[in-house]
Design brief:
alpha/beta, Rossmann fold, Four Helix Bundle (Hemerythrin (Met), subunit A), 3 domains, 14 helices, binds zinc ion
């Protein structure tokens, strides 16, 4: 199994610290708003990665932080005039609902930053003791010139940076690389949010949260750290120097970063009107599994161009899989040697996924298999036993993809007939009749969807 490691800019053979186990840290949400589809591209990628590791029999220990304190959450809570906890709880709850909607498996641990301030203070204290910091007006900064290879992950050179420049806010651009705040002294902008500690009255910076919580749950050196490419600098760059500056050990062996999501070819932004939360897309009537498929289908290191056209295509792809499941359940044909077909598909799928999660090739092999199986079904060459083997195989594959509903039921004959009559009425441009038939179908608890490949019936 190989992964592309941002640290070395190479695909590397994956070797965990402990045989058979994987410690994995994922930068989680800052709970100041509903998460947008770009965020979910990251979380779907993380989900695919953890599912693939589990498929390959690793015991996965995934930690995803919940940032419930930073510049943005404090600002938001003060604006709304409610406590920080009250403010963040709402978005945290929404985040977990969204994960379930997209069939994203739960990580093993979701530490909240506000519950781990003690560990962060201890980590800052170690950095103070090791001579990596200085203080200014109660705020403790990390002196980046004190850390050899500061820019190794982002490939920036410390010599290019302005000596002595410092930044207090959590987010800033590469051009402003400078000493950054580990611990922020309280000021009036923080309202009633502060901790009284031996390093002063204040609150942690965003970057220290991840270094402290990842090492607490995964140890000083662990296997995989993931996140979007926008986190390489400054967040992950700072995580490395905070951790390694304190322990003197290598922090993370494999850094995996997913590319951005763009919408209809453009950067997603509120000003362009192409900014979508997951909830916005659901409101437009798209199915969760189609959204998951759309977020999954592009290799994680390529930009994903989200569009409503491709979302429609995703619905069709899911439809093809669901149609096959239904047909297999009633298959009763002659016996064919499907084992060989299954084996070939499985090999292609596994080789592709082992190669840095090459999802495009993996999915292509799956849809070739769907086509071949459909052909055999049409020729009456799938027996009950064959159908069971195929279904078992699809279940195995879907433990990785998480897109198939194996419980979906076949459509009753009378509903099928109503749908055919409606289609006929539509062809004859008798739309009043078509609408009447649609209502009858709805009364029988089915909905009819018009797709590029014709109408599809679904249970309500
Ligand atoms: Zn982080």
């Amino acid at each position: 199994m190989k992964f592309y490691n941002t640290l070395t800019r190479k695909k590397e053979l994956f070797k965990p610290v402990k045989k058979g186990q994987v410690g994995m840290y994922t930068c989680g949400p800052t709970v100041y708003d509903f998460a947008h589809i770009g965020n979910f591209r990251s979380y779907v990628f993380d989900d695919l990665l953890r599912r693939w590791l589990k498929y390959r029999n690793f015991k996965v220990n995934q930690v995803m932080n919940i940032t419930d304190i930073d510049d943005k959450t404090i600002k938001g809570s003060i604006k709304e005039g409610i406590s920080l906890k009250e403010y963040t709880k709402k978005y945290e709850k929404a985040f977990f609902e969204d994960l379930d909607t997209l069939n994203i498996e739960r990580a093993e641990v979701y530490p909240e930053a506000t519950k781990h301030v003690k560990g962060m203070v201890e980590l800052v204290q170690k950095l103070v003791d090791n001579g990596h910091t200085y203080e200014s007006k109660g705020t403790i900064y990390f002196r980046i010139s004190s850390f050899k290879d500061y820019g190794k992950l982002a490939r920036i050179k410390v010599e290019d940076l302005k000596a002595g420049a410092r930044v207090c806010q959590d987010e800033y651009e590469k051009e402003n690389a400078s000493d950054f705040a580990l611990w922020k002294a309280w000021d009036e902008n923080d309202g009633d949010v502060f901790w009284e500690t031996n390093i002063g009255k204040g609150r942690p910076g965003w970057h220290i949260e991840c270094s402290a919580m990842s090492m607490k749950y995964l140890g000083e050196t662990f296997d995989i750290h993931t996140g979007g490419v926008d986190l390489i600098f400054p967040h992950h760059t700072n995580e490395i120097c905070q951790a390694e500056g304190a322990t003197g050990k290598k922090f993370v062996n494999y850094w995996l970063h997913n590319e951005h999501l763009i919408v209809e070819g453009k950067k997603m932004s509120k000003s362009l009107g192409n900014f979508y939360t997951l909830r916005d897309i659901l409101e437009k009537g798209y199915k969760p599994m189609a959204i998951r498929y759309e977020l999954l289908v592009t290799h994680y290191r390529q930009k994903l161009n989200f569009s409503f056209k491709s979302l429609k295509a995703a619905e069709n792809s899911i439809g093809r899989l669901q149609d096959l499941i239904i047909k297999l359940k009633s298959a009763n044909g002659k016996t064919t040697a499907v084992k060989k077909l299954i084996e070939n598909t499985q090999n292609k799928f596994e080789d592709a996924m082992d190669d840095d999660l090459n999802i495009s090739i993996a999915l292509a092999s799956l849809f070739d298999f769907v086509r071949d199986t459909n052909k055999l079904l049409l020729e009456g060459k799938i027996s009950k036993k064959n159908a069971k083997d195929v279904l078992d195989f699809l279940k195995k594959i879907d433990s990785v993809l998480g897109i198939i509903d194996f419980e979906e039921q076949d459509v009753p004959k009378e509903v099928q007939e109503l749908a055919e009559k409606r289609e006929q009425a539509r062809k004859n441009k008798n739309f009043a009749e078509a609408d009447k038939l649609r209502d009858e179908i709805t009364k029988k608890d089915y909905i009819i969807e018009d797709t590029n490949q014709g109408p599809r019936l679904k249970k309500k």
